[in-house]
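Sample pair:
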Amino acid sequence: MFIGNCNRFTLFTMKKERGFTLIELLIVIAIIAVLAGVVFVALNPLKRFQDARDSRRSADVESILSAIKVQQVDNQGNFLTSIRDATTSPDSLGNPVIYMIGVGTTGCNTDNADCRSDVASSGACVNLAGLSTGGYLGSVPISPAGAVTWDASTTGYTLEKLTNGIITIRACENEGATTPEIQSSK
């Protein structure tokens, strides 16, 4: 009988389960943290945000020009009044006149240092709100904030109108290799 009790005691102690120690858990957590850090650095979130803002600028440039062209077609080839009234002659240096898209009447060239194409003068804004009220654009796009925080007065997008009727829309800023720009055909 004594031998049977001894065997039962031995079997009971062998069934004891073993858990993770604190050291083992800390090592696993440290490894996961290092891997997460490496992945985070490899993904470069700042670059992803810059690329997203540039993509938005490219889409906005395309939608503005598309709205201008559709409005022109709907009006038998006539531009929106604000575009029609925009000067096409070059400035005193021979450069084409660049307008900031927005509702501002002054300060349109305030952010030329951050704009890839210099706006001609303080009053060189072209108001494209008629595209919104006419149903061609939901609203006039405002460039995502990069170096400058843009607003409805100065949207961060420019318009250039040549004498032959070609319109060029540009984003003022870019955070990548090229400035988002699109030009209409004649």
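The two ends are 108 Å apart (CA to CA).
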